[in-house]
Amino acid sequence: MNPTATREAPDRERASPPTPPAWAALSQRWPAIFNINAPRPLKIGIHKDLLQAGLAPQDFKRALAHYCHTRRYRQTLVEGATRIDLDGRPARMVTREQAIADLAPDAGRPRGGARQAPRAPRPPPQPMTLSEAQCVKGRLELTLKFSELPKAIPGERDFTFGVDCEGTLIQVSVRPRLWSRLLQAAREYPQWVATVTGKMGPPTARGFVLLEQRSAGNRNGLYCSRTSSTNARPSSGR
């Protein structure tokens, strides 16, 4: 087993190995060699020495792999560092190639082993026929975000504009007071985001109309933000 063979690169050091009985077989018998708080580079092929010492593979395999995966151990694998055997004697040095390989993105695969093929992307869900028993009641709520001031069509009670969401055109109508807040945000804020919520209404040629949602305890609204925000309610779509 190559002690620099794998690298899972956890962000935080694990305080204790995942298999305490197996780790005890190493740390108690060789406390100076397997010291998780002060690790030193291990001899290449030290697993063979462990077998000769009378340990079965199941007694040390996972614990040794965990030890060699820790961040503290990998930080010792610098060019020129001395490796040690089970007796603490020098067993060659870490080469430049080994140090670079431990830092490589694919250091998690065994040295000399086959490179893992990239994982295939998850296929998109396919349409299915669901029975009534497989369905529950719900409510569809939509949230639109945009950061450009649209050229709205003024009406008697509202201003109407469209939001193009990846090819789907959603018709939105807001009351004059809310339109004024959009104008204010575009005028005063170098960067701003407006959020409009509602529910799906009648279909149009390229999308649908966003309708006002009137649900108890949940006021639908338009939200303009930079460092401050205002909340309000849009009018029903026309």
Question: Could you explain how this protein is built, in words?
Answer:
- The protein has 238 residues and is of the alpha+beta class.
- The chain has 2 domains: 20-103, Fertility Inhibition Protein O, Chain: A, Domain 1; 142-232, OB fold (Dihydrolipoamide Acetyltransferase, E2P) (Beta Barrel).
- 23% of the residues lie in helices and 24% in strands.
- It has 6 helices and 12 strands.
- The chain has helices at 20-27, 46-52, 57-69, 71-75, 96-103, 176-188, and strands at residues 82-84, 90-93, 142-146, 153-154, 159-165, 168-174, 193-203, 207-211, 214-215, 218-219, 222-225, 229-232.
- The strands form 3 sheets. Strands 3, 4, 5, 6, 7, 8, 11 and 12 form an 8-stranded mixed β-sheet that branches. It has a two-stranded antiparallel ribbon with strand order 1-2.
- Helix 1 crosses helix 3.
- It is elongated, with a radius of gyration of 31 Å.
- Residues 4-18, 105-114, 213-220 and 227-238 have low confidence and may be disordered.
How does the SSE layout of this entry go?
Layout: H1 20-27, H2 46-52, H3 57-69, H4 71-75, E1 82-84, E2 90-93, H5 96-103, E3 142-146, E4 153-154, E5 159-165, E6 168-174, H6 176-188, E7 193-203, E8 207-211, E9 214-215, E10 218-219, E11 222-225, E12 229-232
Parallel strand pairs: 6-8
Antiparallel strand pairs: 1-2, 3-7, 4-5, 5-6, 7-8, 7-11, 9-10, 11-12
Helix pairs in contact: 1-3
